[in-house]
Design brief:
Blueprint: E1 2-6, H1 11-22, E2 26-28, H2 40-49, E3 54-57, H3 65-70, H4 72-92, E4 97-101, H5 130-150, E5 154-159, E6 161-163, H6 176-189, E7 194-198, E8 204-205, E9 207-209, H7 210-223, E10 230-232, E11 238-239, H8 240-251, E12 256-260, H9 275-281, H10 289-304
Parallel strand pairs: 1-2, 1-3, 3-4, 4-5, 5-10, 6-9, 7-12
Antiparallel strand pairs: 8-11
Helix pairs in contact: 1-7, 2-4, 4-5, 6-8, 6-10, 8-10
Length: 306
């Protein structure tokens, strides 16, 4: 079986490629320059001359709250266009299975925890990342529509917030864990007695170690063939305030934390129900938060801080 992975050189994609190679699959992971998903004619040409059996669509324009607020139109248009083009051309070119990877940002702002897949349409997403979340949620609509009309085997997965070695530590576009690791470490290096963190610290989040997510995606590619979306998470949440204290402890930082309450908190809470993944693909995460954070801190200090 030949598998095409878009975004295969990205944070999650590298882990997915590694696992699939270990399982003996023939994989193809072109770069953005080699495979422009915004150009539908180009996508059609590439798939017509290079047939594949499965596509795992990981490519996305994404980032933290700051990046979403600065570029909402790009986050909507680029993600919608890439996904729509690719799935349509996959169907036209006889791809046997399409794995669409969505986002926890697709869930309504006030979804009760734990988020169940049935809750996806009960309200509007949190405003700071709604354009991104809605663009990615349209992949679910497209997948179900193509399955109903054409019998196309497209599945839709919903990973929660990811972290781990290889994450994006750019302060302009990073998510909360790498942003905090960098902020705390730079405060240690420069001898600063406090750090300033966005929001109130009260919202809760769930974090999934990237390698666990990659394994879940590969398991779903092999075993899951339902039109219903499926969550991938840990089922456990932690407040941002508690996360900061945990990172301070793991990194040995004794300074104070000052909360910039003029900055948005984002969604009040995020925690997924992963019953469907346990029952359908026998998947659950293996790496706990403290262990995963230590691995991420070590990677930052060994590979990026230098």
């Amino acid at each position: 079986m030949k598998i095409l992975i878009t975004g295969g050189h990205g944070f999650l994609g590298k882990y997915v490629c590694q696992i699939l190679e270990e399982r003996g699959y023939d994989i193809c992971a072109p770069t953005h320059e080699e495979f422009d998903l915004m150009d539908r004619e180009f996508v059609h040409h590439i798939l017509s001359i290079n047939p594949v059996d499965v596509i795992i669509h990981l490519a996305a324009l994404c980032g933290g709250i700051g990046a979403n607020r600065m570029r909402p139109a790009e986050f909507f248009y680029n993600n919608l266009t890439m996904g729509t083009n690719l799935m349509h051309e996959a169907w036209l070119n006889g791809v046997k299975k399409f794995v669409a990877v969505g986002t926890v940002c697709a869930y309504p702002k006030f979804t009760p925890t734990p988020f169940r897949e049935e809750d996806l349409w009960t309200g509007y997403p949190e405003e700071t990342n709604a354009p991104y979340g809605l663009a990615k949620k349209m992949l679910l609509v497209q997948a179900q529509a193509y399955r109903e009309q054409y019998g196309f085997n497209a599945i839709y997965l919903l990973p929660v917030n990811l972290y781990g070695p290889g994450d994006n530590f750019n302060p302009r576009s990073s998510h909360v864990i790498p942003a905090l690791i960098r902020k705390i470490d730079e405060a240690i290096i420069h001898g600063e007695d406090k750090i300033i963190v966005w929001g109130t610290g009260e919202p809760t989040r769930e974090f999934l170690y990237v390698e666990d997510c990659a394994r879940g995606l590969c398991d779903a590619m092999e075993k899951y063939n339902s039109p219903e979306p499926m969550n991938l998470g840990t089922g456990q949440e932690i407040s941002i305030g508690a996360l900061v204290l945990t990172l301070k402890d793991l990194m040995g930082y004794e300074g104070k934390v000052e909360w910039d309450t003029d900055k948005p908190d984002g969604q009040p809470s995020r925690c997924l129900d992963i019953t469907r993944a346990k029952e359908n693909i026998n998947w659950k995460p293996k790496v706990g938060l403290r262990k995963g954070l230590l691995k991420t801190i070590d990677w930052w200090r060994d590979h990026v801080r230098k």
